[in-house]
Predict the structure of Cytochrome P450.
Amino acid sequence: MEIHMPYTLLILLFFFIIITTIAFKCLISNKNKNQPWKLPLFGHIHHLLASPPHHALKTLAEKHGPIVHLQLGHVSTLLISSSHFAKEIMKTHDLSFANRPKLLTVELIAYNYTDIAFAPYGDYWRQMRKICVLELLSAKKVESFRSVREQVSWDLLDSITMQRSKAVNLTEMISIVMNTIICRVVVGRGCRDQEMLLKLINDAVHLSSGFDVADLFPSVKVLPLITGTRRKMMKIRKELDKIFDRIISDHQERRRVKCENENEDLLSVLLRLKYDGGLEFPLTFDNIKGVMLDVFAGGTDNPSAIVQWAMSELLRNPKEMKKAQAEVRQVLKGRQKIHESDVQGLEYLKLVIKETLRLHPPLPLLVPRECREECEIGGCRIPIKTKVIINAWKIARDPDYWIDPESFIPERFSESRISMMGTDFEYLPFGAGRRMCPGSLLGLANTELPLAMLLYHFNWELPDGAKPEDLDMSESFGASLKRKNDLLVVPIPYDSSTDH
Ligand code: HEM
């Protein structure tokens, strides 16, 4: 049922929230000072909804300490902002925090939590995670899509070259590249309704950030009806479902004629597992759609954001840009086309990506966890169902762990052994522990080749003679941490003969 919001209802709702807010006054306890704080909640929610939440939460942590208990609406939330407490959550007590919170927005969109990212910790999640790690996103599987990445990167080269030194919208171009790669990885070729699919997923993930009013007041059942969240999510869900159904039936039709030696795309793997049987939880079509949703959501926007931020940082730091270009040009020695094997030797490029992930992690607050067994963190008892937000973005800019943390210095990783794979808790672009990202290999492979290609074939300038320091670096918090404004740049084709 849809309720079209009459104003009186809205006003009533507003007062209801204020009253419950006052009743639930936000208890913020600073564990460092061992002193409870009481602050009106509404101001904080307003800040969270108004500015990028990782910024607002950083300010909160600076004021109240690295472990803060806050009542976000009706949701009891633990905010973690230090490497020490991140390790407590994701290593020492990983099992106690292996759940995800239940969000109405996710329930509506992620096939009732039967995807992987939001499935509750338990046997079903373990089965799906195993399929993910062994069958869908293993190093061998990622490697098998090498030719897809090469072809799509070469197509990008052609479309930029055609612009003949006019300004190009790199944001749009990179998004298309990532969309195309992930469609071919999942379906074996371009998806029907590709653009619409990705828009819907983007809208869905944006609404599922956990900061939607309906998710902050889950016990107010009428809220999603009044705010329109339920209507919006149901609309997205219906459209998405239709597209996924068409993709699956097209795919089954095509696969009736099976070609020998053809690389198995991810949907083929899932359908094989469905029909071969033998799984403790036989896969339904909804389960398959849930996994596809995760792969599209994780595999499109995140790598796209990394390439855009890396290019933005290099444009703002010409010395580092020159160094990255010199490396790839030296390795390729004037060859016409870049291949994935060339990327293996690009040490500086990898440092650039690492430093980009430090300053601009696509998921700055990771994916929230939820406490499933009572435990003690920093001397506090954490009850079951407490939601946990880890501000990985703040930790990765903390002067306690990083020298000159706001500056882009890829070299900082050259001597350091800090890994991005969840063992060093001051640097967590892919999270850590049992629920760590299983798609890091695919995500990085999809990032490295297009970035190397951009650096090899072109020199880059900002339009209208703008200076590096003029480049706007504002962020927009959504499905992933993106540039607020599209990245417009002028490509100058690089002529290797001028180097000699
Ligand atoms: C390269 C960019 C990527 C980044 C930075 C990234 C980051 C993350 C982070 C921070 C988490 C939460 C980890 C935690 O809770 O500790 C996560 C979870 C997840 N990611 Fe990624 N991701 C990326 C690419 C991908 C790709 C390409 C896929 C799939 C094709 C993917 C699929 C997932 C899934 C399924 C989860 C949930 C795992 C679970 O709950 O068991 N990600 N990702």
